[in-house]
Amino acid sequence: xxxxxxxxxxxxxxxxxxxxxxxxxxxxxxxxxxxxxxxxxxxxxxxxxxxxxxxxxxxxxxxxxxxxxxxxxxxxxxxxxxxxxxxxxxxxxxxxxxxxx
Length: 101
What we know:
Elements: H1 2-7, H2 15-48, E1 54-56, E2 62-68, E3 72-77, E4 80-85
Antiparallel strand pairs: 1-2, 2-3, 3-4
């Protein structure tokens, strides 16, 4: 058995780096890139919302936008009005009013 180990060829010194680089590239295309795309789409959605749109917050609150500022949105809900952070509007909620038919 020792003879087999001695006769085995040594691997190239750069091989582990090539393997590591290949794993990073695969991880980038399957994990990092799709996450960046989802973040970009969510940002575009939040920039496109306007007064009168029906939205859902990340907490599940359904409401209609009655005013928008740089960082907050005022929603009209069944029991009154609430102010939420603009980042709390879920891009996977209701379609915006322009898309509703």
